[in-house]
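yo

u said u wanted the structure for the complex thing, so here. seqs first:
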Amino acid sequence: MLLMTQHQRRIFSYIYTLVPDRHNSEDILQETSLVICEKFADFEPGTDFVAWACQIAYWEVRRARQKFARAKVIFDQEIVDAVAETAGTMAEEITQRHEALEHCLRKLHPRDRELVLMRYEPGSGVEEAAQRSGRTLEAAYKALGRIRKLLLDCVTQRLEHATS
Amino acid sequence: MSMSDKDSLVLQELCNALADGAITVAQHRRLSGLLRDSAEARQFYVRSMALSASLFQYAGEMMTEAPDARSSRPRNIIRPGAWWAIPIAAAAMLVLAFWFGSNRSIENGTGSTSEPESEEMVARLSGENGCRWTGSSIALGDELRSGQRLDLLAGAAEITFDSGAQIVVEAPASMEVASAWNAVLRRGTLKATVPAQATGFRVANAAVEVVDLGSEFSMIADENGGTEVFVQKGAVETTSQDGSQENRKRVVLHERQARRFARSGVSDVANREEKLMRLSRRLSFQRIKRPFGYAHWDFDVAKDHVLTAQTADLPAGSYEMTLKHGTALAALQTAGRWGSALNLDGNTALEASFPNLSARASRTIAFWTRISPESELSEAGPAVAWLFDGKEARLFRIGWNRNPAQGAFGVLDARMGRRTVVGMTPLRDGQWHHVAVVITPNRKNEMQIREYTDGRLEGIGVRAGGKRRGNEAVEIPTNVLAIGGTSPSSEHFRGGLDELYICDRALAQREIAYLMQTNQVVIPDLLAAD
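structre next:
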C-alpha cells in the first residue's frame, strides 16, 4: 500500500476538514485505510489515487457522523457536502500550502513556534501548551489565534510569490 | 455571497475556536451559516483547517527539535510523529538509520571520548579481555548508548548489539556505537559476526562502508585512513567512500576475499591469507552470567478451568491464569505453534496474579501469535497487558497497530501510557509469528521499548506516540497480568496466543531467537555473550 502511505497526509487533511477533531479524524482515517485495503482492487492505476481515497473517506465521514450525532457542534450534512466539494477542488492548493508551511514555521519567532508545536504535538492540547509555556489559558488561546493568522498570511504570500 | 471584512475576522475567530475545541454552540451556528452561504467562507475554512492538519503533522515530526535545527541535526531514530513517512520496508528503514548515524559519526571527527546525547540503549559490552579504555571506563555488562564512542587502549572487547550483531574490537581501537544496526570504526581491528536476523548490519568509516549480507567479516582501519576488509564467511557489500557519490561503486566481497580501501583507491590486500588466518583466531573473553526468572504459560492443558504456569526464580505466587469473562477455556483451546494454544475470540479476557509485575523493572515478554486477516479494528485490543508502575495512566499493552498515524497497519504495537513503539512486519496474515517486547529503564529511568518480530529487531526507543485518548477502560489491579482485554467494555484481542513467557530481565536478541527456535529459555552459559 505504497500509495496509501504516500498520500496518507493528504487524506487526513481532507478528513480533518470535514470532521475538525483530531481523534475522530484519526479514527476515520483508520477506517478509511481499512476500506482502501479491501477495495484496492477497484482502484484503476493511472487515475487520481487521492481523489479516489477521498471519496472513500467522504463515505466514512458520513458513516461516522451517526456516532457524533449527539455532539453539540456537528455540521449539518448539507454543510459537510459543500465543504467536501470545496476541499476537493482545492486539493492541489492545500498540498502547496502544506509545503510552504514548513518555511513559514521556520520564520516564526522561536517562542511562537514553540507554542504552536506544543499545541499540536500528539497527545497535547491548548491547556498543556499553556502550562508548558508558562502562559495563562486565555493568553495561549489568543497567541494561537495570532500565530495561525501569521502562518496563514505567510503561506498565502509565499504561494503568491511563487506564482508571480 | 462575498464576505465583508467583519465577516472575515469573525470567520477567523470561529475557525480558531473550532480548531482549539473551544467553540460554543452559538459560534458553531454562526460558522455553519457562513459556510452555508458563502463559497469564499468555505475556501477560507478549508485553508484554515488544512493548516491545523498540517500543524499536527509538523508538530509530530518536530516534536523534540526546533525547525531551524531539523536540517542539521542528525536523526538516528524515525519518529512516529512523522507518520506520513511510515517505513515501507525494513531495508529502507535500516538504510536511513544507518545513513544518519554513520554520517554523524564521521562528521564528528576524532575528538576525545564524549558522552552521547542519546539515552537510547542499543548495545552492551558482553565480553572483555584485559580492556583499558580512555575516558570514562566501561564495565562488563554495561549498556551502550546510540552515539557512544569507545576508545580501547589495550585488550579486546566484545560488543553485542540489540539487532543481534556482535563485534570484537582489538586495541588500539577507536569506534562508535551508532545504532543497533551500525557502528563506525575509526581505527583498529574489528571482527563482526552477524546472525541472519541482523542481516544489513553495517560498519563504516571515512574509507569504506561495509554492509553485511549474512556473514562474518573483519576490518582493519589504520592511522592513515586506509581500511582493509576481509570476509570470513558469507558475503558483504562494500562501498568506497573515496571520490564523488557517482564514483562510489558497490562491490560485493565473498568468502575469503579482501580489499583495501584508501584515498588512493581500492586495491588488493597484501598478505591476505596470513591476515585472514590471524583474524580467524578465537579470542577468549570474560563474561558475566545474567540469570533471570521467568513464568511460562504453554496453554496446553486447562485443569479445573485454570491454565498453570511453569515458573523459575520468581517471587512466590500462583501465576495461574483464570477466565475473567467471556468464553470457557476449553472452547478456546486450539492447535498451536507448540502443542495447544489459546484462540482468543475477541470477547474473552483472562487474568493471572503475577507478584511485582507492576514494578518499574526490566522485562521481556515473548509469545507466538496468529491473527486472522479478517480481524477487525474492534478486535485489536491487548493480547497482553498490565498496569505499569501501578498507575492506570500507564497501562502497558501489546497488540497490533490499528492506527496508521503510528505506523504500518497490523504490525506489532507495544505501548506504555502514551508512548508507543510499532514494528514493521504485518501480523494480520493468518500465520504464526513470534513476537518479543523488551522493556528496560534507561539512565533517566525512562522505559525503553524494544520489539522483535520473528527474531528480528523492528522497533526501538522511548518514543512519544501518536494519539491514544487514554479512554480505554481498565479494570485490572496492579500485579495482575491481563490477557485478551482489560475490562468487559474495552476492546478485546482476537487471535491465537501460544507459549507466553515473561522474564524478569531484558533478553538479548540471541536469547530471543533461541527461545523462538526451541521454545526453551536460554541457558546463559550456552550462548556466548549472554
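Chain B touches chain A through 59 residues (CB under 8 Å). Chain B has three domains: 5-101, 121-279, 294-527.
cya
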